[in-house]
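Fold this sequence, please.
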Amino acid sequence: MNRVLAIIIGILIVGGVGWLVISNRIVPDKSNHKAQFEKAPDFALRDYDGKTVRLVDFNGRPLVINSWAAWCLFCRKELVDFVAAQKEFEDKVVFIAVDRAESRDIAKRYTDELGVTGNMVFLLDPSDSFYQSIGGFSMPETIFVNSDGNIVFHKRGPMDINEICERAQQLLN
């Protein structure tokens, strides 16, 4: 019985490691291979005021687009860090946070509680289409988009302020 259990645990560990390796390679960092970039998915989402915001509104500007939700424990610290990064990069990089399928009231109450509402672009995605368009399967998920509209890095899972700023700086180089 112990041997069977050991084999099952071993298979689960190997499978888990394999999943982590594969999941971080779906859209790898291709910063030295510009011809191979994947285009950022187009979107037309509403902000907290009901104004429609589209990807094309940011043409020619580097973007950091984060998919988050109020139920995501990792998103709490990360949203605060994204706002700090937005302040650091000012108008050189646009930081966008796309809420996953929650009501405006839930999303705005959450960002109000964090004190970040109004400090970066917050969009609502009631159908969860953006998350699906980037092949999301972890939380949070963030794409870094260069000024040509190409994804140069796709991060699955949380980041700290240092990684956020490092990746954003790479968009400017």
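Residues 59 and 160 are 27 Å apart (CA to CA). The chain has one domain: 30-172.
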